Amino acid sequence: MRTPVVMGNWKLNGTKSTVTELVKAFSTVANDAKNVDVAVCAPAVFIGMVESLATGSNLKWGSEDCDVHTQGAFTGENSPVMLKEFGCTYAIVGHSERRGYHNETNEVVAAKFKSALDNGLVPVLCIGESEAEYDAGKTLDVCKAEIKAVIDLCGIEAFNNAIIAYEPIWAIGTGKTATPEIAQNVHKGIREFLKTFSAEVADGVRILYGGSCNAKTAPELFSQPDIDGGLIGGASLKVADFTAIIEAAKANA
C-alpha cells in the first residue's frame, strides 16, 4: 500500500507572518494525519523558518528547486547539501515553470534529480504536457520522455526513493483541472511505462497529481487507484483548503 502524499508548493509567495501561520497550522494537521505524508516546499529564503517552526511535528518540508552543484562559484543557486542541512526531505525538480522560464531541458532536470538523490533528498520529478501537446494526443509521449531522461542517467531503481508529480501545464494556475478519468488514465500510463523497466519499482512509486487540484476536486482525484496524492499550488497557501485536501487524502489512504 502506497502512503499518500499531500505536498504544498508555495512558489514565489510568502511573508514571515504568513509562513508562521501556515506552518503552525499545517504542523497540527500533519500530526493528525498519520496515514498521509504532509509536506510544504517553500522559497529558499524561508526554509530555515519552516525548519524551526515544524521541527518536532509530522510536517515535512523541502525546496522548490535544487542545483546540480553542491558548492562553488554558482551565485544564486541552492545546494542539495545545504538544503539537507536545513532539514529538507524533498526537492522539487523539473517544474514546468523552471522548464519554461529557465529553459531547463530533460537532461538538466535529470541532473538535478541525481544531485538531490545523491545528497539524501527525495526528488519530486514534475512532468506534464502543454495544452498543444494535450490536444495533439502527445501527453504520454511527453511524460515518458521526461521520465526516460532520469532513467537513462540514474537507472530505474532511483524511483525507489523518489516521487513523480504529473502536472498538465494547461491546468497549472488556470483553474482547469483534468477530470479524474483523464488524470487516472495518465497516471496509469506512467505506471505502465515504468513497469517496462521494473514492475516492483512501478508498483511502489508514488505518483501525485498537480494542476489546480483543490478542496473541491481532491476527493474524486484521490479516489483513483493510481493517484497517490497531490502537489498543491495556490490551495497550499490557504489553511482551510490545504486541510480539506489532506482530509481527502486521509479518506482514501
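The above is record 1. Record 2 follows with the same two-line structure.
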Amino acid sequence: MHYKIKLIQLFTGVLTLSATFMGIADDRTTCKEIEKQCIYKTLEKVSKWQLERLNTDTYVFEGYEKDAHMSPANEGSHPQGWVYAALFVGMAQMAELASEKGDESYYKTLFDIAKNGRYLFGPRIYNADDYAIGQLYLDLYDKYKKEEIITPLKVVFDITLLSPPTVNLTFEEITQKSNVTDKQFVEHFGQRKFPYRPCKNRWCWADALFMGPPVWTHLAKVTGDNRYLDFSNKEFWATVDLLWDKEDHLFFRDTRFFDKREPNGEKVIWARGVGWVAAGLARILEHFPKDHPQRAGYEDIFSKMMTRLAGAQQSDGLWRPSVLAPDRQPFKETSGTALMAFAFASGINQGILDKDTFMPVVLNAWNALNDAVQPDGKLGWVQQIGHSPDKVSKDDTQMYAVGAFLLTGTELYKLAEK
C-alpha cells in the first residue's frame, strides 16, 4: 500500500523553515532556528538540566517525582539498565559534538560513569534491555580506544554465541510457586525485582530493536568479528517476521497487540514502541556494512516505515501515544516523537531518505519538541515507562526522552547549513 505524506505537514514545515531563515523572532524558552549555534544552545540547556540531577558519588540520577518509576526497587532504575542506557546513547552523541567544539566535559562525565560501573551490564545477559548500555561503551571505545571498555561486552556476547537462546517469541509473563515453600519465585538483584518473561531472552518486543542489534552491529564493526553481525542479523529478521505489519508498514509492540483494535477500528500502534524501532534501525544502519547482501532489506523496511510515520504526524509536529488513533488519547508525547524525529534526520544524513521530502517532517517535530522544553531545560510531555499508549502530562519527564532529544538535535545539527 502506498502512503502519501500529508500536504499540510509539508506546507507548515516549509513555512517554519522559511520563517527561521528570515529571522522571525521566537519568544519561547528554547532556540528553534535551524542554525548550528542555535541548536547547540538548546542541546546544552536540556543536557544541563539532566546532568544536574546526577549524584556524582553514586552515579545515580535523583530528584524524580514519586510516580516516575525511578524508585530503587524498579527494574528500570538499574544504573546499567535501558532507561539509563537510552539517555547515554544521546548523551554520547552530544559528547562527540561538544568535543568538536573543544569541550571534553561530556565525554569525561560519561567515561567516569562507565568506569565507575566497571563497563558492566544489567543482570540479564540475554535480555536486550540490559545490554543496551553497550552502545555507550562502544562510543567510548571509538573515542578512547581502551580495550577494557568493551571486554565485558565481548564476554557477554561470546557467552550468547556459545549458548544462544531458543525460546519462543510469544510474549507472556510467567509466575511460578515453590513446591516446598508455596512462595512465588521472583528474580531479585539487589532491591530490584525483575519479572520473568521468557521471550525477552530474545528480541520479542519492539523496543529491543533499539536496545540490542545496534550493539551487536557496532561491536562487529570495531572488532572485525562477523559472528556478532551474523547473530544480530538472524535475530533481527526473526523479530521483523514476527512484529512487522506488512499492510500498515509499522511494528506491533509485541504479540499481545496482534488482535487489539482502537475504537476507530485501527490497530494499536504505540508511538514509543514504533519509535524505538525507527531509531534502532537508524542506529543499526550507521554501522551495518554497505556491501552486505541484506542491507537493502533493512533500508527497505526503514524507508517504508518512515514514509508511513510521516503521514501519521499531527499538525503540531508530534505523534500521539497511539499512532493510528490520535483522537483517542490526544496527549502531546515527546519520547516517541523524538525517537522518530531522530530516525528521520539520521535517514536523511545517511542518504537513505530524501531530504526534500522528509526535512519538513523533521522541522515540525523539532519545533514541537522545543515547545515541550520548560524554561529550566526540563523536557516535558514524556509518557512514563510502559508498553502501550497511555496518558501524559506536561510535567512528565524521563531520561530516555532526553536521550532521544539529544539524538535528534545532534543529527539536525549536521543538517543545518550554517
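The chain has one domain: 7-174+187-415.
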